[in-house]
Amino acid sequence: MHRIATLGLHHDHVWSNLKELQQTGRAKLVAAADTDHELQNRYQSEFPGKTYQSYEKLLSDEELDAVYIFGSNKLSEDLTVMACERGLHCLVEKPMASTLEGANRMFAAAESAKVRLMINWPFAWWPQLRHGIAMAQAGKIGKLWQVKYRAAHQGPVELGCSRQFCEWLYDAELNGAGAYMDYCCYGAVLAELLLGRPAHISGAKISTGFKPDLSLEDNAILVLTYPNALATTEASWTQIGKLTSYSTTLYGSEGTLLIEPNHDGKIRLATQEQPDGIEIEVPEQPSYFGNASLHFLAAIEDPDLDIYPLCDAAYSRGAQWILEEGIRVLSQSASC
After folding, report:
1. 139 inside domain
2. What contacts 139, CB < 8 A, 6 or more positions away?
3. Which of 106, 216, 273, 277 is deepest in the core (most CB within 10 A)?
């Protein structure tokens, strides 16, 4: 039975992930830390184990095998380094960090301690997305020449996210940016995996003015250019409804894959012979792809098991490079 603690409760994704961890029956939740008393109380009402206000005291007091890290993007950098230095495996919620420097520190700490560092990208657990990626990598649609992903909703407050979550999402230092960091990160890691590091980055960040209390951008797009390919990653905190949200499109020289979102989503393939597309059956996959907790436990139990590439820290660090370079380029453009 793995002894696992949670560092940070102010990322709303923590609650569903902790429930999934409990459901595995293979781990014991022994403690959680956060400086917010309201979040500590919620944890105590739903999960076992002691709560701490100090992350350092939890790490010094508790005997652990691994930690879940669900803090702000900036805080997660320091928490990951602290945990790795204590020899603990780490599951960190996406996008890995608020800065490239932070991602580099996290990566180096895990490498030095020889522990598992897994970055949890929620869309990695969609079977149809993994199958579409596998098809593209196997050349089933010919030479890949474009990767397209859009992540969008009406906004964290409008979506009903907690006060604690919104406070740091709306803080450029704690998040790394606004909607740009929160949602362009998905397309960045997808492009990093399928196409690698781009030769050129352009794009735009805007504030629509629909959110007077938000000083950061609420919409953004990055265009990643490669010698013979491109990728686009879009983010929105102002979109009404779910149309176009979270769909992935992969364009190849011999076909197009449209991958619909969520666990009940579909994957369609268009070719010269089937221009309107046909539905592709997604094969049954190993149980350790069921969710982040199942995959993380499998990875720390079997050192020879590769972490799924989307969640591998090396690709997430590559995505962080794309995001930081995009911020640099867009800042230069804004100042001209």
Report:
1. yes
2. none
3. 106
Q: Is residue 330 part of a domain?
A: no
**pLDDT digit string, tens, across residues 108-164:** 999 999 999 999 999 999 999 999 999 999 999 999 999 999 999 999 999 999 999
310: left (phi over 0), alpha (psi -120 to 50) or beta: alpha
pLDDT at site 150: 97
Same domain, 200 and 55: no
Q: Please, are residues 233 and 191 in contact by the beta-carbon 8 Å criterion?
A: yes
Residue 62 inside a domain? The answer is yes
Q: What are phi and psi for residue 189, nearest 5 degrees?
A: -70, -35
**Cβ contact 148:251 at 8 Å:** yes
- As a whole number of angstroms, the distance between CA 237 and CA 209 comes to 11
Closest C-alpha to 71, from 6, 160, 163, 153: 6
Phi, psi of 27 (to 5 degrees): -145, 150
Return d(Cα 226, Cα 233) in angstroms, integer.
Answer: 14
**229-236 vs 267-270, strand pairing mode:** unpaired
Burial class (CB in 10 A: 0-12, 13-18, 19+), 273: exposed
Residue 335 lies in a domain: no
H-run or E-run covering 54: none
Count CB neighbours of 276 within 10 A.
6
pLDDT for the residue numbered 265: 85
Residue 3 makes CB contacts below 8 A (sequence gap 6+) with: 27, 28, 30, 62, 63, 64, 65, 66
Per DSSP, the three-state class of 228 is: coil
Helix (H, G, I), strand (E, B) or coil at 10: coil
The tokens for 298 are 């499998």
| Same domain flag for 165 and 274 | yes
Taking only the tens place, the pLDDT of each residue in 163-211 is 999 999 999 999 999 999 999 999 999 999 999 999 999 999 999 999 9
For residue 335, what pLDDT is reported? 61
Enclosing domain of residue 112:
2-120+290-311
Structure tokens at 183: 């949602």
